[in-house]
Amino acid sequence: MSADPKRDLKIGIDVGGTNTDAVVLDRSDAIVARTKQPTTRDVTDGIRSALAVVLGELGERERQVGRIMLGTTHATNAVLQRRGLSRVAVIRLGAPAATAVAPLTTWPADLREAVEAGSVMLGGGHFVDGWPIAPLDRDGIRRFLGSVAGRTEAVAVTGIFSPASGEQEQHVAEIVREELGADVALSLSHEIGSLGLLERENATVLNAALYRAAGEVTRALDAVLAERGLDAAAFFAQNDGTLMALEYASRYPVLTIGSGPANSIRGAAFLSGVDEAIVVDVGGTSTDLGVLVRGFPRESSFATDIGGVRTNFRMPDILSVAVGGGTIVGGTPEEPVVGPVSVGFRITSEGLSFGGSTPTLSDAGALAGRVALGGGLRPPARTRALLDSALRGADAVISDAVDQMSLGRRDRPVVAVGGGAFLVPDVVTGAAKVLRPDNADVANAVGAAIALVSGRWETLAPAGEGRRQAIEEASEKAVHRAVQAGADPATVQVVEITETPLSYLHEPAVRVNVKAAGRLGWL
Amino acid sequence: MQLTESDLPALARGCAVLGTGGGGSVETAIPSALQALREHGPVPLVRLADLDDDALIVPMSSIGAPTVGHEMLASAEQPKRLREEVERIAGRPISAIMAGEIGGSNGVEPLAWAAQLGLPMLDADGMGRAFPELQMVSMHVAGLTSDLVILADVVGNVAALRPIDAIWSERQARALCVASGASTMMANYLMSGAQARGAVIEGSVSAALDIGRATIGHADPVAALTERLAARRLLDGKIVEVERNTGGGFVRGAVVVDGTGSYAGRMVRIEIQNENLVVFESGEVVASVPDLITVVDTQTAEAVSTETLRYGQRVSVLAWACDPLWRTPEGMAVVGPRAFGYHIDYRPVEEHVHVG
C-alpha cells in the first residue's frame, strides 16, 4: 500500500487523569502541533477541545490528517465508577468441572449487580490434553439464553482450556446469534485472555460489560471527526503499547485499560531515541515507573486487579510512588514528611513559588535550580532547609524505585518524562544516565501517535518434535491477528515468543505465547 | 469455634506464612472457600481432644499440576464422591476432615470441602508447615501406613488404591492423576481418633488464624508477626539476587538478601526447593529445615512465596521452631537437612548464635 502524500499527518491523543494531551506528527514523525487541555468529566469534551486546538494550529493542513490514535481511560473509568456498563449473560463451559466456583463469585457486589444478567455453568470444555470434559450442552445453552432474552445486551462465553482451541466457543457464539439475533455483542474468552479460568472469565465478562462504553467513545470520536469534516482513520491504544483499529477496539474494549502508562513508555522511547530504558513519568500526584525492553513496555507477570476484579491479561509492569510536582512537604528539616497528599492541579495557586502558602516538591525543585517557576522564591531559612531535605528524600524515593525496576541491571538510562520530570535528579543510582528529551510533557500522546499494531496467539504445544511446528503455527496466527488489527503485512514481525514448561502431563508440554507487531498500513 | 467468611483473609495470610515460601498461592484457594461458606454456612473447627477414639478423620488434598488446577477448577461434587467411597470402605461416617498440609493454598482448600460436606474441620494437619514431598507428613513419621488412597476427579471417576508402600502410593496416584487431566482430589492416611493422637500436628488451623489476625491492621506488622511466632528476625534487607531452576516437578534455587538499616553490611542466602530450606550467613548455616523459614514483606508482613521473589523487594527473613515431632530421630530422617541433600547436622534455630 502506498501513502497518499497529502494525507500523511497523524494525531495522537492521550486522555489522562488530569490532562488530555494531543500532538500532531508529520510523515517523518516530527511534532508539528501540540496541546494540553484539562480532562473533562465526559472525556469526549476534553478530546473535542484538544482536537480543536491542534487542528486550529494546522490551519489549511487540517485536510492532511489521515489518522487519529486515541489512548483513553474511558473503559477504566466505566469499571471504576460502575457507569454505563452493559448487562451481560455469562456462560461457562466445562461442568461438572469448576462448579466449586460459580462465575463472578469474587466480584464486588455492586459491580456484579450492575453487570450480571444471569450466569450458567454447562457441559462442554476440555481437559488439558484436548479430551472433552462433557458433551456441549446445546439445549442448556438455548434454555439459558431464552431466560435472559430481553434483559441482556451482551454474552460472555468461557470454556475450560479454550485458549488451546477456541472452536467450541465459536460454535456457542453461533447458537447465541441464532437465539438472540446477529447484533448481540459477544465476548469469547479465547480471544481475550490466557490460561487461568477465573481471571480469563473475569476479563471476558468485563470486556462484554464495556461494549456500551466503548460504543459511546467510538461514536463520539466519529462525531467529532464528522463535525470537522475529517476523513481520518481512527485507532485505539491498548495496554501493550500497540494500536487496534476502531472496529477491533469496539469488540475488545477491555484491552484499552492500561494504555496510558504503555503510551508514556513508548513515547519516552521515541523522544529519547533509546529502546532499552527505565521510564520515569512524574505527574502532579505520583510518579509511574515502567521498563522499556526492545522497544515495548515490560509486562507484569502478576494478575491485574481492575475495579476489584482479578484478571490475567497482560499489563505493563508499573511501579507507582507518591512523588509528584504537587506533593505537599511537611514535618521538620530533620524529619521531613513528603506526601502522599498533593495539591494536584491547584499547584499554580497554592504552591509557594506561585504566591501560595503550601510548600511542595515543585518549590523544592525550583529552590534547587532544577526548574524556573514564577518569580524567584526566597523563603525563610527554616523553610529553605525543609525543602532542601524534602527534595533529598524524594530523590532517594525515585532512586530506590528505579533500582527496584532495574532488577539489578545498571547499564540502562533513565528517561524522565511528564510535567514534573524536573524532579528526577541528574544522578540516579541504578541507572547509567538520565535523559531529558524535548516534549517530554506530552510523551504519552506521542506514544499513541507512533504506536505499532500487534497481534497475539497463545497455545499449548508438545515439548518434543511438534514444538517447532506449533510455534510456527502460533506465529502465523499472531501475524494474521496483527494484520486484522490494521498492520501493514510487509512490516509485521514476530517480536516476542514466550514458552512456559508445564509438568504433570502425559507428555511434557509447553505453553507458547507469540506476539507480532508492525507499522500501520497506509490508507 | 466456627469458621466463617470473615475468617478467610486471616486464615489465608497465616497459611501463606506457614507455607515457608511454598504450598501453592493462597489466592487460588479463596474463591471456592468463599462460595462454599456462603452457600453452606460456617464450618465447626474441632480439636482432636474433642473426638472419640473411634472417630474417623480423613486428610484431604488436591494433587496435580498447579497450571492445570488454575484452569480446570474442582467440581462441587468431588468432595461428595470422595466421601461416599471413604464411608463405604470404612463402614462408618466421617467425623472430621483434615488438611494434609497447612502451608499455602493446601491449608485453605479443605475449608471449602468441609463446608460443602457439612463436616467439621480438625484443628490439625500433617506438617505444621509446607514440605515438597508426599512422604514428608507426620502420619508417616508416626508409623501410619499409606495403604489406602482414594481419588475422585472432576467428572466423577472414583478410584481406591491399595498400594504396598508409600512409594507405590505416590507412583500410582500420580498415574491416575495424569489420566484424570493432571488434577484430582485425594484422601489418604484415613485415621481413627486414637491413631491420630501423636500422629498429627495439632492446633495448625487456629495457629494460622492467629498469625493472620496478629498482623492485619497492626502498626508494625513484622514486629507483631515475629512476636507471635517467637521467631528470630534474621535480617531486614533488599533482595539482590534470585536464581530459579525448574526441574523434576520442583522449583529449586536461591535468593540473596542484602541487609539494610540496622542490618546493613550483613547478607544472607536462602536456598529453596519449592519451600525455603536453609539460610546461610557468611558461609554458616543460621537456620534450616525442618524449622520454618519465611520471607515476608517488610512493610506489610505478608509472606512472599518463592515464585514471586523478585529483585529489589524489601523483605524480612524470619525463622522459628518447627513442631517437636520433626526433631525426633524419625522426623529428622524424613525432613532433616540430609533428607534434602545437605551434608550438615541440624541445629535448632533457637540455638544458633547470632553471627553479625
UniProtKB/TrEMBL annotation, chain A:
<dbReference type="InterPro" id="IPR043129">
    <property type="entry name" value="ATPase_NBD"/>
</dbReference>
<dbReference type="InterPro" id="IPR002821">
    <property type="entry name" value="Hydantoinase_A"/>
</dbReference>
<protein>
    <submittedName>
        <fullName>N-methylhydantoinase A/oxoprolinase/acetone carboxylase beta subunit</fullName>
    </submittedName>
</protein>
<dbReference type="InterPro" id="IPR045079">
    <property type="entry name" value="Oxoprolinase-like"/>
</dbReference>
<dbReference type="GO" id="GO:0016787">
    <property type="term" value="F:hydrolase activity"/>
</dbReference>
<dbReference type="InterPro" id="IPR008040">
    <property type="entry name" value="Hydant_A_N"/>
</dbReference>
<dbReference type="Pfam" id="PF05378">
    <property type="entry name" value="Hydant_A_N"/>
</dbReference>
<feature type="domain" description="Hydantoinase A/oxoprolinase">
    <location>
        <begin position="200"/>
        <end position="371"/>
    </location>
</feature>
<feature type="domain" description="Hydantoinase/oxoprolinase N-terminal">
    <location>
        <begin position="10"/>
        <end position="179"/>
    </location>
</feature>
<dbReference type="Pfam" id="PF01968">
    <property type="entry name" value="Hydantoinase_A"/>
</dbReference>
From TrEMBL, chain B:
<dbReference type="InterPro" id="IPR027479">
    <property type="entry name" value="S-Me-THD_N_sf"/>
</dbReference>
<protein>
    <recommendedName>
        <fullName>DUF917 domain-containing protein</fullName>
    </recommendedName>
</protein>
<dbReference type="InterPro" id="IPR010318">
    <property type="entry name" value="S-Me-THD_N"/>
</dbReference>
<dbReference type="InterPro" id="IPR024071">
    <property type="entry name" value="S-Me-THD_C_sf"/>
</dbReference>
<dbReference type="Pfam" id="PF06032">
    <property type="entry name" value="S-Me-THD_N"/>
</dbReference>
<dbReference type="InterPro" id="IPR048350">
    <property type="entry name" value="S-Me-THD-like_C"/>
</dbReference>
<feature type="domain" description="S-Me-THD N-terminal">
    <location>
        <begin position="7"/>
        <end position="161"/>
    </location>
</feature>
<dbReference type="Pfam" id="PF20906">
    <property type="entry name" value="S-Me-THD_C"/>
</dbReference>
<feature type="domain" description="S-Me-THD-like C-terminal">
    <location>
        <begin position="166"/>
        <end position="349"/>
    </location>
</feature>
